[in-house]
Every structure is written in C-alpha cells, then in structure tokens.
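Fold it.
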Amino acid sequence: MSLKAQIHEWMVRHREEGIQLLQNLVRIASTQGNEQDAQLLMAGKLFELNLDVDLWEPDGAVLEKHPYFYSPRTRFTGSPNVVGVMKGEGGGRSIILNGHVDVVPEGDLLQWRSQPYSGEVLDGKLYGRGASDMKGGNVSMLLALEALQGLGVRLKGDVIFQSVIEEESGGAGTLAMIVKGYKADAALIPEPTNMRIFPKQQGSMWFRLVVKGRSAHGGTRYEGVSAIEKSMLVVAHVLELEQVRNAGISDPLFEGNPIPIPINIGTIGGGNWPSSVPDTVTLEGRIGVAPEESLEHAKEDMVRWLELLETKDDWFRESPVELQWFGARWVPGSVDPAHELIRIVSEQYTGVTSRPAVLEASPWGTDGGLLTVLADTPCIVFGPGSTATAHHPNEHIELDAMFEAAEVIALTLMEWCGVAEPVEAEGKDAATAEAAEAGSNQEQGGQDAGELSPSNEHDALA
C-alpha cells in the first residue's frame, strides 16, 4: 500500500479523534484576551507529539515600538503564543504552519441555531464560532503532523507549527513570532479558502475622515453648513477613488472578483440635536491594499484624492477633510504563482480530491503578508472552511474538507521538506518503507531549517 493511501486510511481511522479535538477547541471562547485555554490545549497536543514546544506571552513593550505593530492592547497577560518545532533529520527545506486561535465575538445570540460554542455536529458539519475561521484549519495541521508520526515518516526539513493570537485585530501574534526570530523557507496558513490556493492577498487599513460644517439653528439652516450633507459628497468622492484604484488591477488571480481592493465606509456619526445644523461628521472605513502595493502608497493615494474635493465644492478649500489612520491593518503579500510550494500543494490537492486546484487572490488579509514581507518567508494560504460562514451566525465547517486538507498538508510536507531514510516503526509495512525511501530520493533545495528556528530560551507559561 502506498504511503499516500496509508495517510488516507490513517485519517479514516482517526476521524472521531479529529472531530473531538475540533469540538474541544471550538468549545473554548477564545475571543481577544481569552486565548489562554485554547493555547494550552494546542500546547498540550504539541507536547503529545514530542515537538520542541515554546509557550510565551508576547512582550507588548517591545512590539509597540515596531512599525508594523497594531493591537488595541499592549499587554498580553493570559494570551500566549505557542510554537512546536518538529526537527528534521537535515538536508531538507523548512516550513512554517501558522494558524490563529483568536475568534471574533459571537454577535446576536438569537441568530444562532444553538449556542455559539457548542461544537455541535450535524449533517457532516461542525458548528461554532471559530470552526471555519480557523480552528478547523489548525486541526488539519495537527492531524497532518500526527499522521506522519504515526506512520513513522521522518522529514529532512524542520516543520515549525505556530499557533498565534491577535490575527483578527492586525497580526500582533505573528509579528511577535517574527520578532523572536522564527522564519523558514516557506509558510502555509490554512485560513478558510474553501480549499482554493491563494498565492496573493490584499492588505487593508482602517481610516477615519472628519468632515466639518458650520452650526446654525435648524429653522435658519441656510445660515449654516451641514456636515451631514458635505459627508455625502465625501462618501461619493471616496467611492470614485475605489473605482480608480481598481481600474488598475489586471492580475488574472482577481478574475471574477468585482472589486479586488474595496474601500468600505463602515461607520458614520455626527450631529448632536435635531434642530441644529450639524458641524461635524465622522466616517470610518477600510481601504484595501493590492498584493504588490505598499501600505504607504495606498495612504498617499487617499491623501491626494481627498485634496481634489475642493475642485468639487469650494467649502472643502476652507474646511478640508481631516484624514486619520487608526486601528487595525494587514500587510499585503504576494508569492509568484510559479513558486514550487504552490505547485506541490496544487498537485497534492488534485491527488487527494480528484479535483483541479483553483488559484485565486485572497479577498481579505491574513498574517501571510507579515511572513512574506517581514520574515522573508513566502507564504501561501490554503485551507478548509469558507468565509461564507466565517464571522457569521451559525458558523460551521465541512468535516470532510478538514480531513482532506489534513491529507494535502501531510503530503505537501513530505515533498517540500523531503523524507529521510525510512526506519522501522510499529504499524509500518514494507510498502510504507518503499514509499518513504522513494521520497528520500527526491532532490530537495533550500537551507536546513535547523539553522533557522531559534532556540527555546523562554520559560513556559506557568
């Protein structure tokens, strides 16, 4: 029996254990500031796999000095990061498997069919906040590592498993990993792509626009200038910028996406009395950043465009709109679609599912941009789950997809990292040994990851 077939059989035999692991993880409400229990569960699983485990709370005082840091908090007490390193035998390429455990709040409980952290399984789906985004992907990674270990497969290159906090609010957890020194020859993040492969991902930033008017009595409103009326002009003007920026997007990976890099106005507030002309309106929104674009270039586009408002209305010459950058931001990332990791994941996906791989550009940001840009670790995004349910009431994941993703990741690790000389292991038959030996003959490039992963010099969280 081929090793590929044995990995599939291993997943079938351990299906209930995998479902139980996901249920246990989903039943922990790991919203921002409450990640510790989920991370301890992850660390415990990594210890079971005999990985070199590093568990620590990021140092906010260090991170807040970094130009790419954003978080609504600078203290991470009770919110540890977790790393588990599966050391390779040497001579192979290294890879980071990165996933986040933080989840967004559950929202209106009345819109959920059962309580948001139930982990209920129904019709092949597991329900609960975080099931799709992205605890199902985390379990896929763990199952891939466990299957390889259970079948006695030894890799040449290191696998660096990262379970991070803070992805949903800007990536401080992954930034802490990078600051600590973790990097590799490539990275994979199993965010909910619906099993599509994303070589590129847009970034985004939050902005605030303060639109000014002049107050007056509502009975003589013609004596004032309504900030609400002026804000309507501002919104229309900003949406014109969206059209201009997207007209320059020709990347075929965005084909079928009607607005590759959207600008969204998410909040509006202003006025203080029904009978008064409002003198201030505040608009808050999100601007998408193209995969090959810098955050600074997108900022400059917005600044220049707002300066054109005075050509549409003289009021803005006297009272220009105030632009502020605040809150979360996600770094865009781009990996050449011809990158070998993309080829490997595509081939393994087709081999497991008998379906052709689909390459697209991500319509949202992930921590992959930080890994690609700051850690010099090309990162692609591929995983089970779908954003059609992520952040929604009744969030869920198709369990079959979670196990398929686990098989794809396990096979990808073998080809990317390389397979060392086979060893006799319990339950490992001659066919397995033959397949492993064949894998060891595959020519591998890249640097031995043993030189890339930092030593475990931090104490574990008490």
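The chain has two domains: 3-201+332-451, 205-328.
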